[in-house]
Amino acid sequence: MNRRIWIILKREYLSRLKSKGFIIGTILGPVLILGMTFLPAVLAMMTLGDAKTVYIYDQTGLYGNDLLSTQQEKADLKSLDLRDVKNNEMAEQIAQEKTSDKLNLKISQGEQTPEQFSAAMNDSLANKSIYGYLLISSDSLGKPQLTFYSTSTSDYLILSTLERRVNSLFRLKNLARLGVSPETAKEINATVSMKVFKVTESGNQEDSGSSLMLAFGMGFFIYMSMFIYGSIVMQSAMEEKQSRIVEVIISSVRPFDLLMGKILGIGLLGLTQYLIWGLTAGLIGLYGAAMISAFAGPGAGIGFSVPLYTIVAFIFYFIGGYLIFSTIYAAVGASVDNMNDAQQIVTPIAFLIIIPILMISQVVRDPNSTLAVILSLIPFFSPILMTARIAVEVPPWYEITASVILMTLTFIGMVWASAKIYRVGVLMYGKRLTFVELIRWMKY
Amino acid sequence: MLVLTSVTKKYGSFTAVSELSFSVSRGKILGLLGPNGAGKTSTIRMIANITFPDSGSIVFDGNPVGIKTQEVMGYLPEERGLYKRMKVIEGIQFLGELKNMKAPDAKKRGMELLEEFGLTDWANHKIEALSKGMQQKVQILTTILHDPDLIILDEPLSGLDPINAELVNNLILDLKKKNKIILFSTHRMEQVEKICDEIVLVNKGIGVLNGNLRDIKKQFGRDSVVIEFDGDISVFDQLTGVEIADRHPKHVELKLNGNPIRPIITFLNEHLDIQRIERVEPSLKDIFIQTVTEKGFDPSEGDLV
Fold first, then answer.
1. Between the CA atoms of A65, A70, A75 and A78, what dihedral angle is there, to the nearest 10 degrees?
2. Are B32 and B198 in contact (CB under 8 A)?
3. Could you tell me which residues are beta bridge partners of residue B154?
4. Chain B residues in contact with A15 (beta carbon < 8 A)
5. Closest Cα to residue B63, out of B176, B184, B150, B179?
6. Touching check for B86 and chain A: CB below 8 Å?
7. Chain A: nearest CA to B15, how far in angstroms?
8. In angstroms, rounded to a whole number, what is the distance separating the alpha carbons of residues B257 and B254?
9. Which of A311, A418, B61, B108 gets the most CB atoms within 10 Å of its CB?
10. pLDDT, tens digit, for every residue of A93-140?
11. Category of A394 on φ-ψ map: left (φ > 0), alpha (ψ -120 to 50) or beta
12. Where are the domains positioned within chain A?
């Protein structure tokens, strides 16, 4: 690297590293991300705070009481030792049962016609003393019919719990009616779950959707990074232009040096930030794992390993994507003198980042389809889509090679074009920009 | 020695500089003059290797301008700018490093110059904390930090108060003594008259006049009279055959156009209380207007001051 690029890089990196913005961003970033991830869950939990009363009117007389008794049984689950929970499935079950603890089921007492019951219940609904009521009737074939009334019908947890319990009871009753012993009935009623294995060259690997998660996760990570750091590069170029320092700088270095120094400096800053986050997360993870094994014994925890080639590919495409897009963003920043003009030019570029994110689920579902192959070879889409493909199923080597070559060529082309635009753009003020104009600048 | 030969620069169909040629040798101050939009900044940017001429050549000390000549050149652009959020001394050091100085040297020299400019106390303040005038001084200081051989100053006095303007003028004369080449660009002709050795007048991208300032002045003769007076200025309108070149309430410059001066003074003396009367060389402004008019331009198109 030439000395000039290095000096620019050093200034760009150090002055940003020491800035309040970076320090605050580094601390608040994870807080925000964690917040956005967990807040909905936390909010959902909070709304479950009060037990919800649901009255049951059982015309058939077969289920109501049993529903109440299962409620009793489930309450016992609370005393169950959570340290025995070894996997997510059971935790989920328990979470659901816990939800049902918040469900206060009551059987309507006394002789009532369904109409009288409904009328009384509607009054209670109106003054919000109950959450809803359930009518159990049966059709001519003896099949139970469930009808639930409530002012708010959006709590799918309660609805599904009710439905599941009645379904389960219905099956048990039917089995009993057919002369099956309660023990056998319980066995029949038991559910099984499916484990998914991914077959790779290095052997079979259990995969409970982890590679899919990985593909989406990495894709989004690259997506976010390209956007965030791309716009930092753009702002930086624009600031230099607005403060007019740029003319002094390009009287000392080539615009190419300034462009490269800036992109590399900010890129390095991004990597520093990710490193800080990664190390912090790693430490918390280690601590967490230690806590889990302390409580649940060794071997517990999440068995989630990412193959090395995926990591290597991710790093390459991550850096490649950043370089390509930040170069474009830098050229835009250097060409405009206010944020409004920047938005106009940036919108079509943003599409190049958004399109692959829109296509990612399509590509991941069928990673070797013609569409997926073509899309992932387009250099602007490769960072997100090729990474996603590699995460779910390693594509043929020649496709990876092709995308690497295409991306490299694109990067070189972008740097060439951007350096040209940069040279003209930084000295151009008060001109409304169009793409045509930008292309004309390359000829100056 | 800086030599421009038939330099032309076009932006699309617009010709900013057309076939411009001039040269300036060491120890000389060259004034690049012309109204706004005449092509001064376009010319300077090509000398600074920021943009490139479409045709013609620019040679400094035998080398075509490029990365190498940039290192021995200091450039003060018309639009000033520094990294506002950097500390003064850090900003200075950075710009010095870009000119191939070693970081400690750049810092040391920066501190020396700050002291010379009376800004030592501000070295560790952020640049944005400085007043505009101080920022201006810092910028001028960075221009000469690396002891360049060619110093390009685009409107160096704009925005400076008289005291600081004097400081900069002295600095320029100092650089001249050190045998540097100074290129001084401005649209304010009177600034140039005081310090420049040579001038290049440009209008609409074309060099209209070029040479030693003394010689040019001589060539245009001593045909003007400056009169300072108390009284009614309308008296001057009664004069015939002479032109009023410059007109202020108590100060008038007359172009005699070959008329004898004695009867004019006699006439004026009857009506006005004359404070001072001096036969002078024509001002650069007059020379400029006369030249461009002779060459067929309309001088009123530019905003010459």
1. 180
2. no
3. B185
4. 83, 85-86
5. B150
6. yes
7. 13
8. 9
9. A418
10. 444 554 455 666 777 666 677 777 888 888 888 877 777 887 877 777
11. beta
12. 3-33+199-441, 50-193
Domains and CATH numbers, chain B: 2-217 (3.40.50.300), 222-280 (3.30.70.1150)
Q: Could B50 and A246 be called an inter-chain contact, meaning their C-beta atoms sit closer than 8 Å?
A: no
Q: Which CATH number fits domain A50-193: 3.40.190, 3.40.1280, 1.20.58, 1.10.1200?
A: 3.40.190
ipTM: 0.81
Reported as a single tens digit per residue, the pLDDT across B149-201 is 999 999 888 878 888 888 889 999 999 999 999 999 988 888 788 889 999 99
Sheet order of strands, B2-11 included? B14-24, B2-11, B55-60, B63-64
Kindly list the distances between the CA atom of residue B138 and the CA atoms of A216, A231, B133, in Å, as whole numbers in the listed order: 51, 30, 9
**Residue A436 corresponds to which tokens in the numbers above?**
């045509």
Quick one: angle between helices B88-98 and B103-116, nearest 10?
130
Query: Residue B165's pLDDT is what?
Result: 87
Exposure letters A141-168 (e unless 16+ CB within 10 A, then b): eeebebeebbeeeebebbeebbeebbee
Whether the predicted pLDDT of A300 surpasses 50:
no
Cα–Cα distance, A295 to B158 (Å, whole number):
75
Mutate one of A248, A260, A420 to test the B interface: name it (highest B CB count within 10 A): A248
Q: Which residue from A3, A15, A247 is facing B50, i.e. has the nearest CB? A: A247
3-class DSSP state of A197: strand
